[in-house]
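Notes on consecutive records. When two proteins share a document, each keeps its own sequence and its own token line. Never mix them. Below: protein one.
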Amino acid sequence: MKKIGFLSFGHWTPSPQSQARSAADVLLQSIDLAVAAEELGADGAYFRVHHFARQLASPFPLLAAVGAKTSRIEIGTAVIDMRYENPLYMIEDAGAADLIAKGRLQLGISRGSPEQVIDGWRYFGYQPGEGETDADMGRRHAEIFLDMLRGQGFAQPNPRPMFPNPPGLLRLEPLSEGLRERIWWGAGSNATAVWAAKLGMNLQSSTLKSDETGEAFHIQQAAQIRAYRAAWKEAGHSREPRVSVSRSIFALIDDRDRAYFGNGQEEDQIGFIDERTRAIFGRGYAAEPDELIEQLKTDEAIAEADTLLLTVPNQLGVAYNAHVIESILTHVAPAMGWR
């Protein structure tokens, strides 16, 4: 069995070819797609966060709205760039959204990805400390966030408060119990996956990672997942971790599918996410259901993960993306043993 959700990057463009031509379109359609996915039996609705772009950027209002409109589906991010975040304010936002969703939040966080602007986090008021890189700063913000989620009091109360205080030091409110175990780290390398395991975070491994061995993407990703699980076991955590991978997967069921995605098999690609880091980008899958099933059986990382996030072309509209999700749930998941 495998949990299956969707991951939307939330693009919009004023192009007449797009079904999402404004930020309002994307936000409202994201809610509608989550509702539709829940009705279809999918397990998760996840959203990417990008700043300075025509994409989803402020996740918590959206997560809260989805939580209010659904009742079962997991609601998450993949991922929030922690270089931009005030971890204490984020505790309050995340706590409120999780309480509205009745404990269904699954927050993916990370040090971030290549940006639309140069050092965008500086415009948000953040700067690495002496000897820190921006990645170090993102991980530091993440560690503060994780520590605050434990709910321990740390702030000295005013002796003459406006409202009565509970005894002792004060914590941030609202705090959602159990959210600490539903934090995921988006790891782009084996080392950061091991770091995440030591801190007790679940693992999100997407379609991009550092090219560390020159092997096929899915083989490197599977090795990353195994390294993460070994580090988790060594750390002695009491619960079982969760691991997700993201893939573009399209079952070619009708003429629309073939027109959009029937141009042949994709391959892994090599690129650079910065001047020093060679990265490998995982291939997508698009084929008739029987052929697609055989292709997916060879993907070692999908086999290793307990959660699969289907990246969806959100600009094609809610109805078509619901069809994409339903096609995988109906024509692929049973044959793969995921249902």
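Protein two starts on the next line and is unrelated to protein one.
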Amino acid sequence: MPVNGPRRVLLGAGALALALSGLVLAEPAYAAGPTSKDKGADTEQSGGEDSTGYYAAAKIQYSGSVAKSGATGNMASSDVNWTPPPCWYAPYLGAKDFKKKMSKNIESQMNTPGMGGTAGAALGELHRHYEDDYGWTGTPGYKDYNVEKDGKGMFWASVENPNEPDILKRSSCNDIPFWVDNGEPPPPRYEEAITPKILAALAYQHIELPDTKVTLAPQAVTKVNLPTWAWLDKAVFDEVTATAAINVPGFNIQATTTAKPVSLKLEPGTSDAETYPASGECTINADGSIGEPYAKGKAHQTPPCGLKYLRSSGDGTFKLKATITWQVNWTGTGGAGGDLPDGNFGTTQDITVQEIQAVNR
């Protein structure tokens, strides 16, 4: 029996923080890290399956080149306004399991000493919502926790992104659990419901790129005013992929995010230097390599990608930073796909620059 919209405010104000405190899905588990070839490994996750055959939580499975133990990867977005999703809604429990957990949770909270007033009333409304078909505008209620549809769908609930530092953003998916039939999409009003696009953004967040250590000639130690050649060989530097997937009864989606290197930027670590080209950005060649390997006899030629130091590093070193820009796109279930913001990842290496010693005769 639906009621008007303001009832939802009462329910949300009192019950959500209490009744849902033990209901939010567990943080996704991770068990994969990059291999020596930076291709990663499949995660090994159960979904918490119990004797009924339903999963207790729709854990996201990551595979490919991903950071270990669920950590954030090392690719930084070139778009400062783009961030991975701080939270989302995902399949949670079948009807019978949800009734067992939710009713126990509500009963426990209602029996808490001192529970009353608005919070107590909201808990009562929450119980009526799932037990007695009590709903409000745009949100239908359920009869006996929808157990007559057990096996034909799942209740969905919110998941916090454990890698989101802002607690307000992380907890912003605060709608109460809702039912979704198998094979049907979640209601449109749940904009944060998990989709291939959201999975692609999470794969982006966890992708692990190889170290950007360029080959130099001369290596490590060079001379003032001597051109230093820089390059990256395609054989050891190629595109990287990461996949995120959810697989539960009646709901299986995935997305693969692919990062492809497109340019290298050199920052000498001192203003007393020149870069080649002048912008310091070396574009990728047709064969996928960057720059050109040094060959004997080219010591005083201008390299297509490189730099020249104009003064000595003295007793120390200069920190040469090499940053790769990665072009990122994704593909997912149902033919979905598109572009994501370019990513950047850079590493530094020490360069010793010596004065050229002249001998007077």
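For the record: The mean pLDDT is 83.
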